[in-house]
Write a structure and sequence with these properties.
- The chain is of the alpha/beta class and 409 residues long.
- It contains 15 helices and 8 strands.
- Strand 7 and strand 8 form a beta hairpin.
Length: 409
């Protein structure tokens, strides 16, 4: 007899049915997880990521292909730079860790680089945890874990993550290393790219903290450092340089947002029977399946989600105010569509005691007054031009130039 199906195996079976028959799951990496945590109210992304659906292929099948992602040239360049940083057993990488994060320790003359190969992500995760335990117990030695595999529980489903490297210091503490191919000019890099790297590293820190907590059952838990090492090319060369980045803020925000995510099994239970996101379905059926899961679109999704163009088109078609941005949506209170906003501004609907409605009507009055004054000013300018033309015979009347137009008030 087959073994009884537990809640975990039942969920995995349900997610496999959502992907489609014989469709392999797409791994949820730290970059996607950070983007998911930035929009925890989007159930569509949560269920698609949890089921391992390839959202880029799904967007193309829906007729809204995505341009989100890394170019092949940047991918190749990044791999070449990472190989250079980790050459010679990671000697240069460990030198940067010692210089930027742990100068009180002995310089890393040599380091242990354990083998982390295993079968499947679960096997690699277990092998990584064992290597971390052994490295922590080997006091006084440096250890470099090259592409370890970490597991993080996300809304009731495990996500397997693969950081560039994790370094175990001689005192037993752990440091996440992020290797990026964007340059660091005069000791500083693009703040937007550094912020994205920090959010990605914060996910790894959370996963390491879970491993450290489990290792701490029989001994003091190892310390996961909240200052990660960001390694980038120096200026316009291919030489590595590094900077220590404090990710405590990003870690706290990511942990809070992940805790707010609706559990994946709860979302799956609300879907109609037979829902499937297989790319082999007809376009109409696939669109209906995607639309059966509510989405929370915001302009920030354009830089973080492959389905952003599809969701934006749907949001605009329905007149949802979320397409204007989260800050605007927060200011409008219970007004959820653009038509509701315009109707309230015109005084046709809405509670006058509602602060949002009162603000809209006041703004509409100020706009009408400003446009009325500008129209009067333009009329006076045109009359003055005609008077000057009549007083200067033989000269053609010229249309008032930009300097004659009254500024907006």
């Amino acid at each position: 007899m087959p073994p009884p199906r537990t809640r975990g195996t039942a969920l995995r079976h349900r997610l496999a049915e959502l992907r489609g028959p014989d469709v392999p799951a797409k791994a949820l990496d730290a970059r996607a997880l950070a983007a998911l945590a930035a929009n925890p109210g989007c159930k569509r992304r949560a269920i698609l990521d949890g089921a391992g659906v390839n959202k880029a292929a799904l967007a193309s099948a829906l007729g809204s292909p995505s341009v989100f992602g890394q170019s092949q040239f940047a991918f190749t360049r990044g791999n070449a730079f990472e190989a250079k940083v980790k050459a010679d057993g990671g000697a240069e990488l460990l030198r940067l860790v010692h210089e930027k994060l742990d100068r009180t320790a002995e310089p890393p003359a040599h380091a242990r680089v354990p083998e982390l190969a295993a079968i499947g992500p679960e096997g690699r995760t277990a092998r990584t945890a064992l290597a971390l335990r052994e490295a922590t117990e080997a006091h006084g030695e440096w250890t470099l874990l090259d592409h370890p595999m970490l597991a993080l529980d996300v809304a009731g489903s495990p996500a397997f993550l693969e950081p560039d490297a994790v370094v175990v210091h001689p005192d037993g503490s752990w440091t996440v290393v992020e290797i990026k191919s964007f340059p660091m000019l005069d000791g500083s890099a693009d703040p937007a790219k550094v912020g994205a790297a920090a959010r990605q590293a914060a996910v790894y820190v959370l996963a390491l903290e879970q491993i450290a907590a489990r290792l701490g059952d029989s001994a003091p838990a190892p310390r996961v450092r909240h200052r990660i090492l960001l390694v980038c090319p120096k200026d316009f060369s291919n030489l590595p340089t590094a900077s220590a980045v404090d990710v405590r803020k990003q870690r706290a925000v990511t942990a809070r947002q992940l805790a707010r995510l609706t559990r994946i099994e709860d979302i799956a239970d609300t879907l109609p029977a037979g829902t499937c996101f297989s790319l082999e379905l007809p376009a109409a059926d696939l669109t209906a399946a995607v639309e059966s899961v509510p989405a929370t679109y915001a302009p920030e999704c354009l830089s973080a989600c492959e389905l952003a163009f599809h969701c934006r088109a749907r949001s605009r078609a329905s007149g949802a105010v979320t397409s204007l941005g989260r800050s605007v949506r927060a200011e409008l209170g219970g007004l959820t569509t653009v038509e509701d906003v315009l109707s309230a501004a015109r005084g046709e609907s809405g509670d006058p005691d509602d602060p949002a409605v009162a603000a809209l009507r006041r703004a509409a009055r100020l706009r009408a007054e400003a446009l009325g004054r500008d129209a009067q000013d333009l009329g006076r300018d045109a009359q003055d031009a005609q008077t000057l033309a009549r007083e200067a015979p033989g000269q053609e009347a010229a249309a008032p130039g930009p300097e004659a137009v009254a500024p907006c008030r």
